[in-house]
Structure formats: structure tokens, C-alpha cells
Amino acid sequence: KLAYEISYLYENNKNEILKLFNCPSHNFIFTSSASEANNLALKGIAFMYQNRGKHIISAKNEHPSILETLKQLESFGFDVTYLDVNESGVIDIEQLKTTIRKDTILVSLMAANNETGAINPIKQIIEVIKNYPKIYLHVDAVQAVGKIDLDYKDIDLFTISAHKIHGLKGEGGLAIKNNIKLFPLICGGGQQDGFRSGTIDYANAFCLTKAVSNAFKNRRNSGEIAKINKIIYDYLINNADEYAINSKMVDVNPYILNFSLKRKKASVVVEALSNNNICVSTKSSCHSKSNNESYVIYEQTKDHLLSSNSIRLSFSHLNSVEEANYFVQILDKIIKEIKQ
Question: How many CB atoms lie within 10 A of CB 220?
Fold first, then answer.
């Protein structure tokens, strides 16, 4: 009886997540992370539909879990085209159109960049892909949930993560339209409709559902986030001799603000900020163990100095205008005190 009740609750939670995203024609697969979900989306489509073609389109500033998966697929004989991004970190629709081939089976583009917040024109991308019924669109929506508006129901597959919306680490998920099949990465007892076998972590599934629900509720604080972002943005732009802003004001996720230091070392400034109880990062934690240069910033700026000296700020509904003013005050003090 208990097993039946848990299974019933699990199905209810899955349906609740799809309801929150307004995706009645989708299925949902619970995973251990967004990285696993991205791997399942890309490899699942590639291996299942390779008889149609082996060409995939993505972008040069995608998340490492996308780029590394695509590298692996290239070793299996798939051909990948990586779109350029402009100075705002956004792909060009016209380049996407000219890149599509007869053997293209998948386009994978993130909704909002994890380092700069740059928002891709997903609505326009959807309109392009609609003209090619044999091409599926995957969207890494990790930085979009509860932060920017997306027509999720029109996306073939999209990935989410729990800890980016104040959920538990070790939770992610992949939403997939019901008419799409995936080659499973994990085979076994056929759990989760055969897409991901293995004993389901029911507790994590329940927690992810709650995190998604809270994320959409917290959208009401987006106006406050915009104020916080603007306070810091205005300070940076008024001190252009010291800073270069990598997060543009147009088509950007206000929850992320990225800038580069022109005269000081980012690592020194980050440490000084930390000593003042301000936590920031030099780039995404997802590839912080790699070299000091951010490939995301380089693809956008084509400047090695800026891409190796960037600082990334992340905001949430828990932050305040007072904290933004404090950050500006402390940063300005640090910049004036550091001698380099």
C-alpha cells in the first residue's frame, strides 16, 4: 500500500511540474542534475534519430555539459556546427537559418547564458525550427526558470536544475514532448517510461516540484531584482575606465550581471569582496577548475584580457537594494585601494 501511495504521489508531482510549465503535451524525466538531463537530451536524440541525419547545431557559448557532450558525439561520427554569438552574447537568427541542412536532426541552444545572462531569441528560434518537422529543439532552461518568460509548451525538450532555483543540489529534469523518443543512457527496469531506468528518488522528485513552484511564485520580485541590477550597472558604466560590462541591458536575464576589470586582477578583487562578506565568482562554477579564461566572455568580446578578468554576480529574490548599494560602496573602495 505504501509503495502504491508513493508512486501515486510521484505521478502527481510530475504532472504538477508539467502544469507549472504549461506543458500538457510533455513528459518529464527526473535526473540527478541538469548536466545529466543535457546529456540525455543530446545523446538520446542523436542516437535515436541518427538514421535521419547526423548533423547538430549549437552555439559557442553553451554550458560545458552541452559542449562536452557534443564533443563526445563528434567522436561517434556526428557533425556539429557551433553558431557564433554577437557582442551581447546572442546567436544570430539568420546564421541559424543558413546553417540548417537536410541532415540536421537537433538544435540545442540555451535560453539564458549562465555567465552573462544573455537571452537567446527562443521564440524566433522556435518559429524557424517549426519549418523543419524532422529537427528537434532542445533548450537548456536552467537559468530561465522563474526568471524570464518562455513558451515552454512550444519547446521539444528543455532542461531544468533544482539548485539554481533554491532547490536541493543533485536534482534536475528533462521535459520532452510525448511524440519524441529517446535513446536511454541508463537501461534496466524501465522506470520513468524507459527513458531513465533505476530506482526513482521520490524525495528529490517531490523537492524539485516544490522548488519549481516557488520559482514561479518568486517572479513577483523580478522588479526588485531589476532595481538591484541597475544600481550596480549604473555604477559600472559610470566608471568605464575601470570596468567593461559583459551583460548588456537589452535581452538579458536581470538575475545575472557580468563585468570585467580593466586595470585590476579579478582574483584579488574577489578575495577582497569575500573579506567584506560579499560572495561573487570569476566565472561559472561549472567550469571553474579549468583555465582562468572564460570562453563565454571570449566568444562575446574576442578579448583575452576581458575574458580572463571577469566577475560574475548572481542575484535572487532574497537580495535587496540595500545590499546592492553596499556592494557598490565596497567595490569602489577596493578598486581605489588596490595598487596594481
Answer: 9
The beta strand positions in 217-292, using DSSP E, are 243-245, 256-261
How far apart are the C-alpha atoms of 4 and 50, rounded to whole Å?
38
User: Which entry of 187, 207, 279, 286 is annotated as an active-site residue?
Assistant: 286
pLDDT classification of 97: cutoffs 50, 70, 90: very high
Cell of 157: 525538450
Query: Quick check: 175 and 137 in contact, CB under 8 A?
Result: no
* 286 has catalytic annotation: yes
Which cell goes with 1?
500500500
State the Rg of the chain over Cα: 21
Question: What DSSP state is assigned to residue 163?
Answer: G
pLDDT tens readout for residues 142-184: 999 999 999 999 999 999 999 999 999 999 999 999 999 999 9
The DSSP element (H or E) to which 158 belongs, if any, is strand 157-161
Q: How far apart are CA 52 and CA 61, in angstroms?
A: 27
Q: Quote the percentage of the chain above a pLDDT of 90.
A: 84
pTM of the model: 0.94
Residues ≥6 apart with Cβ < 8 Å to 165: 145, 146, 211, 212, 214, 215
What are the Cα distances from residue 19, in Å, to 23, 147, 162? 6, 17, 17
Name the strand (E) or helix (H) holding 13: helix 2-20
pLDDT of residue 295: 96
Whole-number Cα distances in Å, 22 to 122, 158, 222, 279: 16, 13, 20, 35
User: In this structure, are residues 48 and 173 in contact, taking their beta carbons and an 8 Å threshold?
Assistant: no
Closest alpha carbon to 67 in 322, 290, 246, 335: 290
Q: Closest Cα partner for 56 from 125, 139, 135? A: 135
The rounded distance, in Å, linking the Cα atoms of 13 and 77 is 38
